[in-house]
């Protein structure tokens, strides 16, 4: 599969995909951006724990 998706809480903990629990959708894939255009130093903020 080319895209991994997960749901996390505010602390970055993974949540179950049970259709009821709410959280933030995060993705990782080889083609996602590595940083902001013209602001590469902010790239680490995008990729918390390896997820975008």
Structural descriptors:
52 residues, 1 helix, ligase
Helix content: under 10%
Low-confidence stretches: none
Radius of gyration over all CA atoms, rounded: 12 Å
**Structure classification:** mainly beta
Count of alpha and pi helical runs: 1
Q: For the largest sheet, list the strands in their spatial order.
A: 2-1-3
> How would you sum up the major sheet?
3 strands, antiparallel
Topology record:
Blueprint: E1 4-8, E2 14-15, E3 24-28, H1 43-46
Organism: Pseudomonas syringae pv. maculicola
Protein name: Medium-chain-fatty-acid--CoA ligase
GO molecular function, one term: ligase activity
Walk me through what this model shows.
This protein is mainly beta and 52 residues long. The radius of gyration is 12 Å and the shape is globular. 0% of the residues are buried. The chain has one helix and three strands; from the N terminus they run βββα. The protein has one domain (4-50).
